[in-house]
Give the backbone structure.
Amino acid sequence: MSDKKTIWITGSKGFLGSEFVKRFSDLGYNVIGTDYEVTVCDADKVCSFAVEVQPDVIINCAGIPRSVTGLSNRIKAYETNALGARNVALAANTVGALIIQVSTDDVFPPRLHEAVNEFDNPHPECAYGKSKRAGETMVRDTTPDHAIIRSSWLYSVNGGILMDILNAVNAGKTYKARTDQFASPTSVSMYVKFLDRLIQNGGTGVFHITSQGCVSRYDFAAKVMEICGIDKGKFLEPATDLVTAEKIELESLMLEMYGAQLPAWDVDLRSYLEEVGLAK
C-alpha cells in the first residue's frame, strides 16, 4: 500500500472481528481493535474514540448474532445491530471516515427461488435479519460515505460452519449436516481480499461478497472432508427439518460489474484449506 491507512474494527474479539484484525494488519494497515470497552451502544464513547484515533475506515463488526437473537431479546438486538450501527456511522461522519457495515444474507427471506443481487429489495423475516436490515438503513441514512457488505456462511478454522465440522471430527463425533439448507459458503480469506479492494478503490454502496454457486450444508461438509482426507462415512450424517429449510443465494452483481472474478464455492474452499495447511 502506498499510504498506511488506519482501520478501526469494532467487535474485534468476535470471530469476524478477530480475523479482520489479523488479516488487515498483515495487509499493511494500521489496525485498531475494540470490543466491549468501546461499546457501540454508547454514542458518546464511540464518537470520542473516533475523534481520538482518527481512523480512515471503520469496519463495524459489533453485533448480536443470529444464534442468540429471538423475540425474547429483540430489544437488545436492535439496540446493538441497529442503533449501534447508527452510532458508528455518526462517528464516521464526524471524522470523515468510511464506514463498512458488516451485514448478512438474513436481510432476505429464507426461501428464495432465485439468486438476489444488490438491487433487489430486502425483506427479512427473522428477528436477527430485521435488526440487521434496520442497521443497514440507519447507516445509509446517516452518511453517504458507507459500504454495506452482505455475505453468506462466512467461515475459517476459527469460526463458522468450517470450525464446527473440524471440531466434531477432532472430537471423534458425528457431524449432522442439513441437506435442506442452501447458501454460498465464503471463506474469510476471500472476503477480506475483496474488502481490501473496495477500501483501496473507495467503493461505496451495497455489495455482496460471496463465493459463487449454492450448496447444502451437507455437501459443503462432504467437500471439506474430501479435501482434508477425512472419512465422511465415519463422521458425516445427513439431517433435515422442513420447518427450518432454507435457500438464500446472493449474487455479487456490483463486484461483477466492476470486473471482479469471484471464485466458485468449492474453489474458494480448497484455496482456503490449502492456505491453512489442511488440504491433503
Notes: The longest strand covers residues 6-10. DSSP finds ten helices and 13 strands in the chain. The CA atoms of residues 147 and 171 lie 40 Å apart. The two ends are 34 Å apart (CA to CA).
